[in-house]
Each structure stands twice: as C-alpha cells, then as structure tokens.
Amino acid sequence: MDDIDDDAEPLITHAPGVDWDPAERRARMVERDIVSRGVRHAGVLRAIGTVPREQFVSPDVAEFAYDDHPLPIAGGQTISQPYIVALMAEAAELTPGDRVLEVGAGSGYGAAVLSLIAEQVWAIERHRELVSSAERVLRELGYDNARVIWGDGTLGFPPAAPFDAIVVTAGGPRVPPALLDQLADGGRLVMPIGSVTRNQELVRLRRDGDTFEEESLGPVRFVPLIGAQGYSERVAEPEAEVLTVAAPMSGRRTAGVRAPHGISALVAESAEPFSSIVSADIGPLIERIGDARVVLLGESTHGTSEFYRLRARITEELIAHHGFTVVAVESDWPDAARVDAWIRRRTPIGPPFTPFARFPTWMWRNRETVELVDWLRDYNEAHEGDRPPVRFCGLDLYSLFTSRDEVLAFLDSVDTDAAEVARTRYGCLTPWEQDPAAYGRAVVSEGLVACEPGVVATLTDLLANRMDYVDGDVHAFDDAAHNALVVANAERYYRTMYYGSVESWNLRDQHMFDTLRAIEQRAAGGVIVWEHNSHIGDGSATEMASRGESNVGQLCREAYGDDAYLVGFGTDRGTVAAASTWGGPMEVKSIRHSHSLSYERVFVDSGIPAFFMHLRDPERRELRSELSTPRLERAIGVIYRPETELQSHYFQAVLPRQFDEYVWLVETSAVVPLPTHGVLGAPDLYPFGL
Ligand code: SAM
What we know:
By secondary structure, this protein is α/β, with parallel strands linked by helices.
C-alpha cells in the first residue's frame, strides 16, 4: 500500500521565511524542554537535537517548531510535541540494531527521530495525504532507513514483523492484539491507552515469551487510534476536534485547537463591553475587586497608551473611594522614590539624579504616567491631614549603581566612618558601572572574585545600626536600607544571569514580591501594582511553570489567596512603543495581528472591540472551561521583534487560571514618550524635568 509520488516537486528544502537559526533553537529546546524534564537517553537527545522539525510542518507554523507543543498538520492531525516524542523513544529503549514499527506516522517527524537511533523504521499512517508528504520530506532530508506506509496500523505491518520496538502515537481502547503478535521476544511496545475524550495512560509492554509485563508511564492525551483494532471512526470523529494534542506527563502543557467561533461567541456573551476609556463603566470591576488587599494591573506590552490610561482610571477610583494608598510599579526604587517625594511634597532623599533616564526611558517617562503622577499629587494635597498620603514605589532591582549612591549619601549624613567602609566595599563594583552585566560574566567565566561579601556586609551593618541611624528620620533610614537590599540583590542578579534565565527571573520576581509584601504590611490601605502581564498573571498557569519559573502574581496568590486580584490586559493590533534591541532607541512599531492559535485571536473573533471579562466568577464555569484549553498568549516587553514574533513573543498559557479578570482592547496605540534631552544632567525636583 505504499503511496509515494516520485515525480512530485521536493516538498520543502528549507522552511520558507525562516531567518532564525534552527540548530540553535533545537539545542536550546533539548536543554529547556527535554533534558530538564528528565529524558537522558543519549541517542534520543542527539536525534531530537538533529532532526529539523520545522521541515515537517507547514511554513506558517514553522516558527513554532522549537516550542514544545504539538502543531497542526494535514488531515486535522498533529505533529507530536518534541518532549512526548523523546519520552516515547526513550521508553522504547531503542538500540542501534533495532527494527521499529511506528503506528501513526503523521508528519514523519517521529519516524525521523526513531530512524536516527534504530536500524530501520516502518511508520504506518491511515491518512493518505500525510503518507505522501511524510514520505517525501523523509526522502528529501535523507532519512533513508525510515519508510512510510499507508494503512491501518492497528493491524501492524506483518511483512516486516517481528519488531524490537513498537511506538503507537495515537490513543486506543487497548493494545491491538495484532501488535502484540508482531512484537519480538524482549521487544517493547509504548502506547497511550484510554478514553477518546479524557486523558489516557501511557503504557509500556515488554514481551517475555508469551507474557507481557505492563508498566504505566503516566497520563497523556493523544488523538484517537482509529482502525479495525482501535476506535471506530464514528466514535472518534465527534471528539477529534478537541483531541488534537499529546500532552506531557506533567499535564502542564497541552494545546488544542477548538473552533474559535464557539469560544468567541461565549466570550462575546460573557464580556462587559465598553466604548472608550473615559466612559468605560468600571463599577462592576471595582465591585469584584471588593476589599482585596493587593490589586495587580497588568499589560501585554510595555508601550501601550490605553493600558496606562485605563489602569490610571481604575487606580484613581480605588484610591479615591476604596482606601488604596500605594501604587507600586515595575520601575527602579530610587526613580520611583523621586516621584514619591514629588507627590507627597517632600524633599527628595539622596543625591540628585534624573529619574527614568535609563533604558527603557519611555516606560515611565511618558505623558500617560505624568498624568497619573499629577493626579496623585493633587489628590494628596486635597486630602492632606484627612487621609493617609498615597505612596508611589518601585519594585524592580536594576538600580545597582543609583541605589549604591543613595546608600553612600545616607551613610555620609549619619556615620562618615561607616560611609568610608561602605565606599571601599562598593568600590569592588565600580569598574562595571557602564555595563553591570559584564560584571556577572567576569565573575562566572573569568573567575573574578565576587563583590557579594562586601555588598551583603554593607546591608547587614546598616540594619544592625538601625537604632543609631534612625534618629528622627525613619523614612530616610528605610529608604537607605531598601537601597542597600537592592544593591545586594542586584549584585546577585547580575551574577545569576550567567547561570541561566530561570534563576535570574526567579530572583527578580522574588525581590519584587518581597518588596511589595514589605510595602503592603506597612501600608494604611491596599496596594495597586502596575507590571507586565508576565509578572502579575499567575505564572503557574503558563509555560513558565514547566521551566521552574515563578512570578509576582503566583507569589501573591500563594500569600494572599483571594485577597489578591489579578487583572490581565491584552490587545490585537495598532502601534506600540518599543526598541528593536536592548539599549536601542524607542520606535513606534506596528503590532502584527495576533496568531490564529492565540487567546488574542479568540477575543478578536468575539467581535467586541473593548471589554472587561470576569474570570473568577464560579457561575461562569462554561466560559472558564472553554477558555481552559491552553493557547498562545502574546507578550511584548521593551523590545518588539515582529519579524520573529511567534518565537520571541508568544508563550503558552491557561488564561482563566492566570488572571481573575481580563481587559481587552482590540486596537491600541503607543505611549507618548517625554524627551530626556534637556533633563539629563539637569536634575530637577520635578521627576520628569519638564
Ligand atoms: N508521530 C507523528 C508525528 O511525528 O508527526 C504524530 C502522530 S499524530 C499524534 C497521530 C497519528 O496517528 C495521526 O496522524 C493519525 O492519522 C494516525 N492514526 C490514527 N489511527 C491510526 C491507525 N489505525 N493507523 C495508522 N495511523 C493512525
């Protein structure tokens, strides 16, 4: 039943539009998604690190090839996620002389991987169109020991039997007896067994003469195995739409494609539409926030005007009518302290400098922030004496050197001897002032002695002398102590960056959470946080969890439970303020329309241009459940690279678990940046120097 069209044009010789380095992505994927989850078989890791997965999918999803999730292929089927392919290949305990049968060839990717480990692979596929494309791409790429056969794999492939290993990549009700017959003595069969609609169990059978030893490898989710000794087409077909996925055993990453109109219609039904930021009825949202202690307001980009303006409206309402007293933002501590001094009409503590003049300046040095800051100042003035003043705080830790200067200035004012000691200790960091990241590199790769003991000792000494130093001005002491903490954590952060992004991400988000917690515990009222969705959405509901990353939103949920209210913000198109490279100039860039497999696309398809959507509501079980099939979600930070958008800006998430509420604005525009020229080097009491 071979079905190969020898005269056809080569299917693909390279993935069109690929301007990234697949080998590099592959290597990263092997480490990030496969080794990290425990696969150790050297041959399997080598094979996954070799087979160009982008060649087995259509060009429009090629950019996704090295993300660890299944992708759609012809016939409504999927190419399995690389982790699952690796897991099954390892479970099959392949050795170089093995003859292998794969049931469910699909794109041919799995067969290519198996063929690099074993002697010969026969891969059966029931969809004829998949057979020809898989066979062609395998020939093109030179995997000559893998053959694709058109047929019903539940019956095996008797002409080549017996097989040392059989790998079944679709879920059946039981192991087909024909496959048991065709398994060689000592052979291994790996297959998902279970219901069409629910999770299945991945099992491994090992043949010993006439007996089969069975072992469970954990829950998975695959498309159905349809055939004479599998499910009948009639039973499987109605479910096929949701069963496009093979899930990992951790159960964390699944992705499926459901008819968007169904979900979008449900979203449209549940959404609370609004027509403009000024007139939006935020009353129901404020009511839902209730008396939460911490309200986290996100943003899917760092440069969207509407997100700032709508968050400002919500913030002002929470402050004016619901007793909130702190705005804590994703900015450096000393810079925010300048704003805080301005809105509370205090003399700034520490040496003069221009706040928010470091890359990315537009994130806080923008017209929208100025409007909020002016409102906060007016509010504090209007309520002086009758309400606690509202504070403005920075949660981040990038201010290694500004914070150092603030600590030294404080010590100069209270203890000149201690200031000298601290100056010497901090001197260790001075050579790296222009490029703190190079400090971490020098410590890790060149064996430079770390400045850690000195910065930690400065913090410890400062705290130990609290009683002597406070002397009248607690505020100045607290500010200096926090700056000393920032120096200590920033020093660690820059070193940790070279051990890996997971460690440095966790260190930064833990620092932001600890700072928030300390602020909240001393605040007279609730705290409103402004940070990117990637920090304030619960990271355990996104692919961050599988990398071992945590974030502010997750830590808040763990610490505050329902007293933390997490609000995500998203958009489809328009313009955004962002740079092309780290440290590069701000540009106003057009945002690409969202990807067809994303949550954003579901919201676009709802036809409602702007809405609030309550996700915590237990009554909305159907909405939550429909939205709970994991999808892609877009994150644009201070850098936006539309040309590699799928790889650079999308991640997998379960949105209704990530947020308590979601705010959608289909079309948005870039923030209006304020100039830094004329203020750099000309410090002014007004934080924006205008
Ligand atoms: N290993 C594939 C790859 O790397 O692209 C992915 C396989 S996909 C998850 C499962 C495949 O099993 C589908 O292509 C489906 O058509 C196929 N399939 C289902 N029942 C089958 C059967 N009885 N015989 C052969 N193929 C079958």
